[in-house]
UniProtKB/TrEMBL annotation:
This is BRWD1 protein. Keywords: Repeat, WD repeat. InterPro entries: Bromo_WD_repeat, WD40/YVTN_repeat-like_dom_sf, WD40_repeat_CS, WD40_repeat_dom_sf, WD40_rpt. PANTHER family: BROMODOMAIN AND WD REPEAT-CONTAINING PROTEIN 1, WD REPEAT DOMAIN 9. Residues 239-267 are annotated as: Disordered. WD repeats lie at residues 1-39, 40-82.
C-alpha cells in the first residue's frame, strides 16, 4: 500500500509536527530538522483528527474512524490516555471531530452516531440536567426552492433563518418537557403553553407510524409580550432596500437613451 498522509498538526510551540498516515501510524517529526522522532502505534483505521493541547506542548489528541481516542505525550512517544467509543448493540462509533476547551481541562468529540462525548476532570453533574437525546425537530426537514431560487422550509414555506426557534425532541421525534424547551435560545421566557409543539403522525421508511413534531404552536410576538427580533428586522430592511434598488434600476433601464442616440454625454 502506498502511504498517504491524511492529517497533519503542529504542537503548541511548533517544535514538533505530527502526521497521520493511512497505514494507521502517527509519526512525530522534528519541525526544524525533519527528523522522524517517534512512531505512535494504537489506531486500527485512518485518523482524521489531530488536536494539539492549547498550552501544553507535550500533549496531542488523536481520533479516528476506528472509534479510538488517544492522548499522546509526543515528546516521549508514549500513550497517556485511551478511550474506545463502543456503542451498546451497534459496535463502535467513528470519531469525526474533537476540540479542547480553552483552559485545556476538557475536550469534546462528535461521532458517526450523533453523540457528543465530553471528557474532563471533576464530576458529570452539570451535564445531567439535560436529556441524553437532543435534536431540533427541524434538523431533517426537507427544503425546497422558490421561483427566485431561494431556499424555503417545505412545510412552512418560510426561509429557515426566519422560522421561530425549533423544539427539542428525542431520536424518535418526541418533544421533551417544557423545562428543556427553555434551553433553546429565543424560548427562555416563553410561557408553558407556548412551549407545547403540535404533534402529528408520520410514516417512517419501514412503514411504521410514529408520533412526531410536525409544526410549531406559536402566537404573534405582541401577544407573547416579546420584542421583535432585531436580526429579523434588519433582514427585512435589507430586503426592502434591495427591492427598491431593483425597481430603480428597472426604471432607469426603461427610460434610457431613445431616438437613436448613443451613450449619454458626460456632464
Amino acid at each position: 500500500m502506498k502511504p498517504k498522509v491524511t492529517m497533519i498538526a503542529w504542537n503548541q510551540n511548533d517544535n514538533y509536527v505530527v502526521t497521520a498516515v493511512n497505514n494507521h501510524l502517527l509519526k512525530v517529526w522534528n519541525s526544524c530538522t525533519g527528523q522522524l522522532l517517534h512512531d505512535l502505534v494504537g489506531h486500527a483505521d485512518e485518523v482524521f483528527v489531530l488536536e494539539t493541547h492549547p498550552f501544553d506542548s507535550r500533549i496531542m489528541l488523536s481520533a479516528g474512524h476506528d472509534g479510538n481516542i488517544f492522548i499522546w505525550d509526543i515528546t516521549k512517544g508514549t500513550k497517556t490516555k485511551h478511550y474506545f467509543n463502543m456503542i451498546e448493540g451497534q459496535g463502535h462509533g467513528a470519531v469525526f471531530d474533537c476540540k479542547f476547551s480553552p483552559d485545556g481541562q476538557h475536550f469534546a468529540c462528535t461521532d458517526s452516531h450523533g453523540h457528543l462525548l465530553i471528557f474532563g476532570f471533576g464530576c458529570s453533574r452539570p451535564y445531567e440536567k439535560i436529556p441524553d437525546q437532543m435534536f431540533f425537530h427541524t434538523d431533517y426537514r426537507p427544503l425546497i426552492r422558490d421561483s427566485n431560487n431561494y431556499v424555503l422550509d417545505e412545510q412552512t414555506q418560510q426561509a429557515p433563518h426566519l422560522m421561530p426557534p425549533p423544539f427539542l425532541v428525542d431520536v424518535d421525534g418526541n418533544p421533551h418537557p417544557t423545562k428543556y424547551q427553555r434551553l433553546v435560545p429565543g424560548r427562555e421566557n416563553c410561557a408553558d403553553e407556548h412551549l407545547i409543539p403540535q404533534l402529528g403522525y408520520v410514516a417512517t421508511s419501514d412503514g411504521e407510524v410514529v408520533e412526531q413534531v410536525i409544526g410549531q404552536q406559536t402566537v404573534d410576538q405582541d401577544e407573547q409580550g416579546l420584542e421583535p427580533s432585531i436580526l429579523d428586522g434588519m433582514i427585512r430592511q435589507l430586503q426592502l432596500q434591495q427591492d427598491q434598488r431593483t425597481g430603480a434600476d428597472q426604471e432607469s433601464a426603461s427610460s434610457g437613451p431613445q431616438n437613436g442616440e448613443g451613450t449619454p454625454r458626460r456632464g
